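Quick one before lunch.
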Amino acid sequence: MLLPTLLAQTLPSLTLASEIPPLTPRQRGLVCRSDTFSDLLPPTATIESIVPILNPNTTHAFESPLQNPAYPLPAPNLPPLCALTLNVTTSPSSFFRFGLFLPTTWNTRFLAVGNGGFAGGINWGDMAAGARYGFAVMSTDTGHNSTSGDLDWALGSPEKQRDFGWRAMDGAVKLAKELIFAYYSDPPRRSYYSGCSTGGRQGLKAVQVDEKAFDGLLVGAPAWWSTNLATWTTKVFTYNAPGGEGYLDSRAMGVLGREVVRQCDGVDGVADGIVSAGERCVFDFERVVCKGEEEGECLTTKQVETAKKVYGDYVVDGEFMFPGLSLGSEGLWSVLLGGTAPDPRGQEYVKMFVLGDAGWDWRTWNDSIATMAAEMDPGELTADRFDVAGYRERGGKILMYHGDADGMIPVKSSDYYYNQTAASMGGVEALQSWFRYFRVPGMGHCAGTRVNAPWYFAGGNQDGSLGAAAHSMAGLRDAQHDALLALVEWVEKGVPVESIIATTWNTPSSPASGVLRQRPLCPWPKTQVLTEGRDEKDPKGWTCV
Ligand SMILES: *[C@@H]1O[C@H](CO)[C@@H](O)[C@H](O)[C@H]1NC(C)=O
Ligand SMILES: *[C@@H]1O[C@H](CO)[C@@H](O)[C@H](O)[C@H]1NC(C)=O
Ligand SMILES: *[C@@H]1O[C@H](CO)[C@@H](O)[C@H](O)[C@H]1NC(C)=O
Ligand SMILES: *[C@@H]1O[C@H](CO)[C@@H](O)[C@H](O)[C@H]1NC(C)=O
Ligand SMILES: *[C@@H]1O[C@H](CO)[C@@H](O)[C@H](O)[C@H]1NC(C)=O
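Model of the 2-acetamido-2-deoxy-beta-D-glucopyranose complex:
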């Protein structure tokens, strides 16, 4: 008789399934065929496709069987695996799909990866990154099919909104674990999550909904306060609407950003062009105001007023709604402030989720919309159940990070999340045993840098932003440099993550260009400090203090 693995390799697709007698559970190991899974599926779930990937080469790509506008790129460089797509009905008007990669050489762990913005699609690219470690890895389309800034699907669809909020992830995680058991005849030893932005939110939300969902979360720049993030995104644009007297064009943003570097770069003791301690910098706006001449490296008083609003907290009727952007983020201000209308993830959210009015015009914005959104939380997106004692008691760990130069989701919103969790779970010291938060000086939103700051540590979506080059991350794939592996060590060996060494290259997203800088990231409130006389480019010259 053929060994089960060989059997799997001789079956090109599920078309042969009917010709072969059903397998007993003992015989199931690693058979990439629908009847391995079908008898455990609930009536709401169907297998949409099942494809054995048998002879991968470095360019070999798994291609999504259906078009996937949110994640259009094929997944390259896969190990041999079984690729499944499932479709699960959640209500008469909603269903979600998820993809599952089951590597032949399995590291005995489960990994779920997240999405970005309002993207509805299976994130095959991040799944591929996970499969290269040997994880059995899952991603859900969150219950709709759209790109990140297309929210039309949500109009009048509370069921789809709820799938996006949490139900698709919750359902996909539970079913994926059973499918893993069916395939390997063993449950996953541990379950992990990695995602950034909306992906960060999805991870936090998943354990707030079900504390048994995961054992470790790698959470980047989470869009956790979804209601207020979206309404702030709309509001912040109104400060800088085109045609306003204090309008900041890209030149003005550049002037401001350079002045911030002049005043704030040195606050951490190292003049490297990276603002590492924005909150410790007392920025003197007077020094950037034009004195007489209205050209060159200066801003008008009105422009400074606009900038102060962008940095400032958003407060409605005395209530704190959302923090502003940080000093050092100016290089990415054009994302939310540079267009002719608010970012769709702000204004389309107001239309499709809050008001249910596709014709709403952002020029009619008023602050009661922000209050209304916060009260409604349509689809239950917001992940604000800070007390997850049950998760902590189970040994669950969270490693959260956020780029200080993020221009889309203010880093202070993660500070706030961490502070709120501390307030409800015994203080910052008590969090250190299970929840650590790493700020990333100079990193933008989830990945990349405009100031040559070390930013790569294998966070959610980071491999993808290097393209297929993720293959060349050999040398960084250890618990010192790779946040996911650091998390695994923390969960499985109890080794707390004291630091993560981030890397950047001479061309920030091209490992082939050679390492430019490496530097440890530190668990907040510790910060990175360069030992006197040491080279700032050498990670050993730094300590977390
Ligand atoms: C690798 O896979 C790609 C895509 O299937 C194929 O076009 C190519 O010929 C393969 N290369 C080798 C060396 O097998
Ligand atoms: C998603 O929408 C695109 C059109 O935008 C379509 O081609 C594709 O088949 C859809 N995918 C799924 C899974 O429904
Ligand atoms: C998923 O299943 C639902 C309900 O059976 C069906 O309406 C939908 O078309 C399926 N989706 C895809 C992409 O096949
Ligand atoms: C704010 O705008 C919403 C949506 O257009 C509208 O329903 C509401 O009446 C407005 N509230 C105030 C106080 O203007
Ligand atoms: C978080 O707490 C720290 C220390 O208590 C404080 O300095 C900081 O302003 C707080 N940040 C936010 C956004 O709440």
